[in-house]
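lol forgot to send this yesterday, sorry. struct tokens for the thing we talked abt
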């Protein structure tokens, strides 16, 4: 690749990221109960989310709430050819952006609570990993339970739900409720160190069935 081509590619990527950031802020301001942050998840936090995942042996992976695709950017290059991957995004604006970025991948503009039906459409019996960008701390308890109740049966034994939370969420009623709730669903829960270079600062939660 020539220097001029490389420079153009970097500039194009930065422009795209800026546009996605504006879109993210707009969606947060108009739907604060459905979009839990003012900016997309940082690449640093996304890299922390994929740590320790055996992509070579995974046969089925789903991503909840991919937003503009910053976590997808980390997942897709690591997928094996034998792995079925699909995303689930309820927000139609984010779903449109994601499809523009990944036109050859499967995206369902649907709720994660319908994961069983979506797996059936994909011919998937059980999922190895679910990566989640959902704003759990913004959800009422009923919705938190609805999604967890739908997800747990679709994970294989030893399967993982990988999600994240924000530091500020530890002090909100919904955030504390979710932290307590997942302990009743999963046999093993691990927290990463805090990723301060994220807006707002956050940490990864790894839940094992």
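and heres what i got for the seq, position by position
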């Amino acid at each position: 690749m020539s220097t001029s081509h490389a420079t153009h590619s970097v500039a194009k990527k930065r422009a795209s990221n800026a546009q996605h950031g504006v879109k993210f802020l707009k969606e947060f301001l108009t739907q604060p109960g459905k979009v839990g942050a003012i900016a997309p998840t940082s690449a640093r936090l996304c890299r922390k989310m994929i740590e320790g995942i055996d992509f070579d042996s995974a046969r089925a992976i789903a991503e909840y709430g991919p937003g503009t695709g910053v976590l997808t950017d980390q997942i897709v290059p690591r997928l094996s050819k034998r792995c079925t991957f699909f995303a689930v995004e309820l927000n139609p604006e984010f779903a449109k952006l994601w499809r523009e970025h990944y036109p050859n991948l499967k995206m369902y503009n649907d709720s994660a609570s319908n994961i069983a039906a979506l797996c059936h459409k994909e011919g998937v019996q059980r999922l190895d990993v679910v990566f989640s960008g959902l704003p759990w701390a913004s959800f009422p308890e009923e919705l938190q339970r609805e999604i967890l109740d739908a997800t747990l049966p679709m994970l294989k034994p030893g399967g993982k739900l990988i999600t994240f939370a924000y530091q500020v969420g530890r002090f909100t009623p919904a955030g504390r409720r979710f932290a307590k709730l997942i302990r009743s669903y999963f046999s093993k829960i691990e927290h990463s160190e805090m990723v301060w270079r994220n807006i707002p600062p956050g940490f990864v939660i790894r839940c094992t069935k």
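The domain at 3-208 is CATH 3.40.50.150 (Rossmann fold). anyway ping me if u want another try
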